[in-house]
Amino acid sequence: MAEESLLEGELGPTGRPLPIFPEPAPPVDGEKRAAIISMCNQKGGVGKTTTTINLGAALVETGRRVLLVDFDPQGSLSVGLGINPHTLDRSIYNLLLTREFAPEDVVRQTSTPGLDILPSNIDLSAAEVQLVSEVAREQTLTRVLAKLRNQYDFILIDCAPSLGLLTINALTASDYVVMPLELEFFALRGIALLTDTITKVQDRLNPDLEILGLLGTMYDARTIHGREVLERVVQAFGDQVFHTVIRRTVRFPETTVAGEPITSYAPSSPGADAYRQLAREVLLRVQNG
């Protein structure tokens, strides 16, 4: 359902009154300082990559410049934007562990103007081992992104499905973390471990890190199970849960094959509308944070 058709105070899928998110103001002119957001959940298949791509594209529609960081050795983010990770001659791995390239040499434009990507491939899996012996190993990604931060309004990091050193690097480099959560029972069990890891990063490495929100994904309102899990998530986390909920649709796998965001592949689809609403909600939370 498009947000324009909603009435103020109407109950949304989370059972709370759904606000009307205002049309985003254009970005302020002048020097940029990107808000860095990690998409994090140690469970695979919960919608991290889909959310990174489509939230980034929806933010671009509001006039923002966005950099996506593929921080998963599987390279799913790169594939989802039409890049073959097996043919890359340079990737984020080179920026983490060598001085061979400047960040600008590795950043690639996508088919969506204003949306750029730092791609990755299987080489990144070696970084986890090699970083162990590095000085200030948890701050390696922070140093890389510091050189790009003044060129973008948002930097979105697609984390690997683990809580290893790569994910710790992402959380240390970030201002915010978004936790995509598949709305099924077993997905709930890993959230406590994830929030514990975030707390440790806040205590020891990045005291400015904030949880921007939990995002319910792969929601099927037709099932009692889906509705019950969403209700439990809201009971447990309250206003930390985004009002926006991403429903299951065949469109998302199709966009991966097409190598483009849903906002351009199926711009009038409910999935595209949901990510546009999420972009507005993210902008409000970041501005008020």
TrEMBL record:
<dbReference type="InterPro" id="IPR050678">
    <property type="entry name" value="DNA_Partitioning_ATPase"/>
</dbReference>
<dbReference type="InterPro" id="IPR025669">
    <property type="entry name" value="AAA_dom"/>
</dbReference>
<feature type="region of interest" description="Disordered">
    <location>
        <begin position="1"/>
        <end position="20"/>
    </location>
</feature>
<comment type="function">
    <text>May play a role in septum formation.</text>
</comment>
<protein>
    <submittedName>
        <fullName>Chromosome partitioning protein</fullName>
    </submittedName>
</protein>
<dbReference type="Pfam" id="PF13614">
    <property type="entry name" value="AAA_31"/>
</dbReference>
<comment type="similarity">
    <text>Belongs to the ParA family.</text>
</comment>
<feature type="domain" description="AAA">
    <location>
        <begin position="35"/>
        <end position="211"/>
    </location>
</feature>
<dbReference type="InterPro" id="IPR027417">
    <property type="entry name" value="P-loop_NTPase"/>
</dbReference>
